[in-house]
Amino acid sequence: MNGYGPYYMPQMQSPYMQDQQALQQRIDQLSQMQNQYKQPMQTQQPNVNWIQVNGVDGARNQIVQPGGTSWMMDNNAPRFYVKSVDNMGGVNFKAFEFKEIQPNEAPQPVTTDMDNRYVTREEFERFLSNIKAQTEEKGEVKHE
């Protein structure tokens, strides 16, 4: 006897046991990494570094790295430009114009003038009567 009683058995680790422990450690690591991506990322608005340019051509010629955005202020006009390049090299260029507003004025709703795109029934009837009158004057109307 070894002096530890009848229930003592020396621990023997099989090679499979070591593989199981290594696998469990790797699963735990991957689980931790997955939880990091699930947490909402805190985004901070970066300070915009304005680049001074001379006109729209200066803004278009401004070099922007892929995945980046440049904000440009026109030196000669109340305009600013935003140029962004995606990771594939596609360029998106926008131009904006500053317009002074009075802070006390309520914003005016944007209305689309549809008068120049469509005719009213009244205008259409007038148009038809003019065509009929012109064709009758020339004697081109056939009476049935």
What's the SSE blueprint?
Elements: H1 15-38, E1 50-53, H2 55-60, E2 69-74, E3 79-85, E4 91-97, H3 121-137
Parallel strand pairs: 1-2
Antiparallel strand pairs: 2-3, 3-4
Explain what this protein looks like in three dimensions.
There is one protein chain. It is built from 3 helices and 4 strands; from the N terminus they run αβαβββα. With 144 residues, the chain is an alpha+beta fold. The longest helix has 24 residues, at 15-38.
Short description:
With 144 residues, this protein is an alpha+beta fold. The protein contains three helices and four strands. A hairpin with a 4-residue loop joins strand 2 and strand 3.
Unreliable spans are none
How many helices? The count is 3
**First-residue to last-residue Cα separation:** 131 Å
Sheet-strand content, in percent, reads 15-25%
**Biggest β-sheet description:** 4 strands, mixed
Helical residue percent?
A: 25-40%
Shape: elongated
